[in-house]
What does this fold into?
Amino acid sequence: MLGLSVEQLRADMNRLLAILFHQGVLDEQFLQLQQLQDESSPNFVSEVVTIYFHESEKLLRNLRALLVDKELSDYKKMGIHLNQLMGSSSSIGAQRLRNVCAAFRAASELNNRPGCLRALELLEYEYCYLKNKLHEFFQIEQQRMLAAAVRYPAPQQHRNNPQG
Amino acid sequence: MGCEMESDQPEDLDVVLTSMWPEDMNEAGRQFNVERPGADQDMLEEVTINKEPNIVDFQRLMELTNYSDKGNWQLAKLVKNWEFKQANVVRLLREELDQLSKQQQEVELKKLEILEEHRFEKDGYGGDKRPISILDENLRYLYQDAPKRRKDIIAQGEIVAIDAEYDSAVYWKQRAMHLEKLLEASLQREQVLVEKLQESIESLERQSTPVEELSQVLKRADNFLHFVLQNAPVVIGHQDKDMRYRFIFNHFPTLGEQDIIGKTDVEIFTGAGVKESQDFKTEVLERGLPAKREITFETELFGSKTFLIYVEPVFSKAGETIGVNYMGMEVTDQVRKREKMAKLREEIAVQKAKETELNKTIHITEETMRAKQMLATMSHEIRSPLSGVVSMTEILATTNLDKEQRQLLKVMLSSGDLVLQLINDILDLSKVESGVMKLEAAKFRPREVVKHVLQTAAASLQKLLTLEGHVAEDVPIEVIGDVLRIRQILTNLISNAIKFTHEGKVGINLYVVPETSDVNKEGSEKKSRDQPTLSANTNGNGHGDNSPSCEESELNNTSCDQNGDQMDQDKESRTKAEERVVWIRCDVYDTGIGIPEHAMSTLFKKYMQVGADTARKYGGTGLGLAICKQLVELMGGYLTVSSVEQHGSTFTFVLPYKVSSASDSDDTDELSDTDHLGDDGYDDDLNSGVFLFPPRTLGTLFSSQINGRIPKLLPNSYGNHCNGLLEESPLPCSSKGDVSEEGSDSSGGAMATASPVLDIDNLRPVAQQEQETASECSSTNRTGVEKSETKQHKILLVEDNKINIMVAKSMTKQLGYAIDVVSNGAEAVKAVQRSSYHLILMDVCMPVMDGLQATRLIRSYEETGSWDEAVKAGVEMEAMSNQSCSTSQVEETRKKRVPIVAMTANTVSESADECYANGMDSFVSKPITLQSLKQCLQRYLV
It folds into this structure.
């Protein structure tokens, strides 16, 4: 781990991001998010994304539950969930998820159950893909931070106030 | 032949003359030959013998020879010897006589023979004339037996040759004549013999008497003794049983005969050693055994001398001791040498011991150095990976963990921090000790340092303690020093104080002391540090040598401004522009358990704590104070402590700081300006001397600041308390005197009422909400402590999506605004009712109540001044009691239209028109970006 230089890890991160952008999985909003990350909140992006995944998983579960109930598919409620998901997805810049959500909502508004199911499946697939990719991304970032911390321990020590 | 054998013997006997020597003389002594007196007479004659030193009591000697065994024996020996010699002489004479009588017989025989021959011749005159030679032959045998020695005397029977014809007249004539001659010769011989005999008899008569012989022998022995003892440093004496001298031989006499003989030692000499020798002799006399002893005399007579004394008792025939023989030899030099040798040997031994000790010390020192080096190296080696571990743990702590994992991580972190701190301490120590530690000189503000240290301590405080700080007014705003190290010292002392204090308070007092030497004198019990005394010295020199050294001392950053008016003036005139040195004293006091007297001495030692109990109970390594002390001393100050057990301790350190006068005055001007301008509090900490961090309990975190705690803790009150602790330490007094002191006190009091600063960023939103409910007025004051006026704007974010909230919050924070967040329209309405906002960011699509409706309700309130619409719409409004109290405010806010910005997702349902229609001012499309938000905020918040 210590063998990997900070620069290399940074390059890996950039490469991964580039791929995601190229595929349209992420958009510029993700960069906005990264801009918000500073010294006062060093893990802002990962925190946000973690919460996003947490929330999204709940929403997806709810959506599936609503769709499984064949007779009483509450399309209105589905719409609210999708709105939520779409909002947060656009907030973190998950472009493809947002697009799928839009399609899903369109289908739900038309009470098109098969369309909804298809959209849900696609949504889940996209969700998993995004999650994996971002997980990988944050892992690399963490490694990079560790490497940086090991290289330059001074600021770390200074923050720990002496107790002796 | 037998005669000859006998005559040899006396010669052998003569050789042995042992009797002249003392009986107990060793074998070596016996080997000395004493030759026959006759032979050596000449040799002795050449030697002039000084007879003077020999002092004899002759009467006593006679007595001795008569009564003592030894004398008797010696006399007997002499007599025996003489008798032997006499016998020998008699034997010789007798032999001579024998010879003579034999010769006589011979002659007689010859005569007879001759006569017979003649007769025979007559008879045989006509007959057979043949001579019978048998006898002749026999005689010849006899003659041959005669002693050879006498041959010259013994006349051999000669056959006289007669030329004349046998039996003629001529023949007979001739023969007769011949015989006549023979007879004559014989007679002559007889005569000679008689003469000889006579002579012998005469010589016999002339032989000396035994007494003469004896005295001769004695004289000879005496001479020998004198010869031998001539230059020997010996004293020989004989004393009777009353210890009176009867005989003394002393080659270097200082006293006459009459002074010694018949007197005792004590009577003769005075001084050290005399009595001892007398006692020794008496002891020998009593015990009857010879003995040796070394005695040092210290007498007027011959000064300080050491004698080796041999004393032997002399016995009478009856076996009683009648006196002592005594022999002394001076061994002063030997003794001196011996003593010198002993001393030298001792010194050598001591030297050697020292050397080994030194070697040991050197060895130990080297070992210690090596160990220290090792420790430092190891500490360094450990630190790098350890800091890696700690930082990783910290990062790990930020990830998603469950409760248990978080707990474990917390333990890991704290332990890691502890180890890291310990290692840093060790490294610091070894740095200071090895002189590697470099101090930095940078401007800093003491008040800020004190405040920050206290703040940090308060943040991690886990006890109900009051932390307070008081900085006197005369402490400069900015000084130059190594702020990191000073902060380290302060932090160390404060955390130490907190550790050992369970209730009460812990505080810092900072004030200027005018004169280091004074403080030293009055000041605490500690030994004066090197630095102050050193500076005092240079000052003294400066007086004498004039300016150069004075300059030097200034350059060296030592304090030289206190001593001597002349120098003060000197310096002031010369160095107005240069920086001056100010000594600031810092007391860190607590009301803790205190330090027992016996622990004071070891307090600043490494790895030492007050006791084993303390270490167990409170933890820690005992390095902290050692580091503090070393750091303070490194910076040219000193650290002292005073303590009363169970009442508290006060650690005091005094350090010199440079003050650059130019910037100082500028700063003060500026600050005083701002001071006059306003009480708005954000510049407060710069010149306020009082910091107070009261005990923090949950819930009263903020409200407690405003209540009446502060008056209780005015500087005066704890000043007195502090004085009680440090009995000898002077009151904080500035060089300006009483006036400024009072001033500082009053100003301190005044400032104490100003609200202390405590901003913990992440707590602010909560705080705000709390305070909003409590009192609106104070909340407006509280919001923007840190920055500009824009911070005082209040923004409300209405948003249901957590992600969006986080993002928006983060963005506004980055733009420098703090926001309140509510999660739906109904709550937004309630929030607006409670408080007035300068901007509302409203999501359109929300559960419970969407943004459009909420906007409508708010707008209706702004127009009508009542919340009836809202109540109708089903929002549970708060009790209207507050309406009465804030009617004026309502009036004010009613006039104002709160800008409401919609946040739309650009979907079909959220059209811009709809937004405007519902009373919104603007909209930003989701997802919001930093840029769009900034523009929006800039537009509405001027």
